[in-house]
Amino acid sequence: MKKALITLSLFASTWSFAQNQLHQVLVVNEGFFDYQTGAILEPVTIGSYNPVSQQYQVVDTLENMRFASDLVIDGNFYYVAADSKIFKMDLNTHQEIASVACPGVRNLAVYQNKLIATRGEYLTTFDSYLHVYNTADLQLIQAFDTVTGPQWATQNIVVDGTTAYLVVNNAYEWGNEKGIIGQLNLSNLSYGNEVDLGPDGKNPDNLIKFGTALYTVNNKDWTGTSISKFELATSTPSTVNIANAIAGCGTSALRDDKITYQISSEITLNNFDLIGMNNVGPVSGANLNFYELAQEPLSGQLYASTTDFFSTGTVFIYDATNTEIHQFAAGISPGTIVFDIRSSAGVPTENTTDFTVSPNPSNGMINIHGKTANAIVTLTDLNGMMLQSTSNDTLNIETLPAGIYFVNLNGTSQKVIKL
After folding, report:
1. pLDDT of the residue at 412
2. What is the homologous superfamily of the domain 355-418 according to CATH?
3. pLDDT averaged over the chain?
4. Which residues of the chain form CATH 2.130.10.10?
5. What pLDDT score was predicted for residue 353?
6. Which helix (H) or strand (E) holds 310?
7. 111 DSSP β-pair partners
8. For 57-68, what is each residue's pLDDT tens digit?
9. CB-side exposure of 14: number of CA atoms within 13 Å?
10. What is the average per-residue pLDDT within 241-270?
């Protein structure tokens, strides 16, 4: 019995040591490009926010880039999509490791040693809208032409298993909007199985995975906003219209089991329930016109940016009740916010928000969304003590005292739950 207690104690200590922490928040500031004169008045910058010291600093400037559109973390590196180039950066020193020309690059995703890049620009024609690079040196592995790949401009990417799902929106071309989800087989690098989201699913601006489905936030034909659901198992789409005005660019994000979004020019946030497929907003608090929304996966805090597009940019941090808890000045047009999650040993972990829990706060039962069949879910207290471990999609914590707990998935992703 004593040996068993010692083993359990060592296991608990190891688990506590391996808890994930928010190391830094990376912010991509798009700068200010004057399209009338063709002049870059403020360059693109990358900023790093320290959540412990609450200090923000510019860590790199991407000269001669008109804007930047995405950033993804992979191990000890991160990759930035900026106008006409892709940059590989060291996650700790922020030094440039490599770069490659990729005009019109929009979004990025990583699978093993492959970097997937979508391309597109308004009223600009490319011979390829989908590239795959080697993550080590950014050498091009494959460029899909418009016969073997997408025929129009592509944007957001979600990797699920060995498939990369991407949206085809034709770069929002007025009068020729598209709303298609295409699939890239990452095992043999073949593209196909495109599914049209229908007339109300045009102009998808965001692609989100929740549970067993993908969701897109669409600007339709500029007459309103809709949300499409794409069942992964059957490739079946369905669409719900949610507003008679557009949501614009960037102002939507997965927040627990809901999509939080904002209609263009408004100052209120709305919630769309992904389980009931209906609006449950607007929500109180956070009454500003935002440019970018992102939920920090450990604490559940919402990071939301504002900008005047030419001189200032600010990032606000809100708790679950949309009460502001901090803000910091960033660069102009903070357009992408990414969280550098690491173990307490300082090792970067997978940067993912696919795993979600609901309801939160909990009524005693927790539903786990986004886990695979064999993934292990564990529940720990604030001291890192493991309380439950299961491969099921639910946890029963109704016998535990009220407080804060951590729900962990395979030891790499962590959510905070309140009881």
Report:
1. 55
2. Immunoglobulins (2.60.40.10)
3. 88
4. 15-343
5. 46
6. none
7. 114
8. 999 999 999 999
9. 7
10. 88
Mean pLDDT value of segment 233-262: 89
Extended beta strands in 221-291, E state: 225-231, 236-243, 252-255, 258-261, 270-273, 278-279
393: left (phi > 0), else alpha (psi -120 to 50), else beta?
Answer: alpha
How far does CA 308 lie from the centroid of its chain? 23
Superfamily designation of domain 15-343: YVTN repeat-like/Quinoprotein amine dehydrogenase (2.130.10.10)
Cα 128 to Cα 166: distance, rounded to the nearest angstrom: 14
Give per-residue pLDDT as tens, 197-228.
999 999 998 999 998 899 999 999 888 999 99
Report if pTM > 0.90.
no
**Considering just the CA atoms, what is the radius of gyration of the chain in Å?**
21
pLDDT on residue 44:
97
The contacts of residue 168 (CB under 8 Å, 6+ apart) are 129, 150, 151, 152, 153, 154, 155, 178, 179, 180, 181, 182, 194
String of DSSP letters for 118-171: EE-BTTB--SEEEEEEETTT--EEEEEETTTS-SS-EEEEEEETTEEEEEE-GG
Task: Quote the pLDDT of residue 17.
Answer: 41
Q: How many CB atoms lie within 10 A of CB 164?
A: 24
The residues that bridge with 56 in the sheet, in sequence order, are: 49
Q: Average pLDDT, stretch 220-246?
A: 92
Instruction: Return the closest-CA partner of residue 96 out of 114, 112, 78, 113.
Output: 78
> d(Cα 37, Cα 408) in Å, to the nearest integer?
51
How many residues belong to the chain? 419
What whole-number distance in Å separates Cα of residue 225 and Cα of residue 66? 28
CB 355 within 8 A of CB 409: yes
Give the tokens for residue 370.
């986004």
List, in sequence order, every beta strand (DSSP E) within 250-295: 252-255, 258-261, 270-273, 278-279, 292-295
- Ramachandran area for residue 13 (φ above 0: left; ψ -120 to 50: alpha; else beta): alpha
Beta carbons of 207 and 157 less than 8 angstroms apart: yes
β-pair partners for 336: 28
Which residue type sits at 221?
Answer: D
Q: Is 101 exposed, middle or buried, given 0-12, 13-18 or 19+ CB atoms closer than 10 A?
A: exposed
Closest by CA to 70, choosing from 295, 342, 259, 338, is 338
Q: What is the pLDDT of residues 332-367, one digit of tens each?
A: 999 999 999 987 655 565 544 467 788 887 878 888
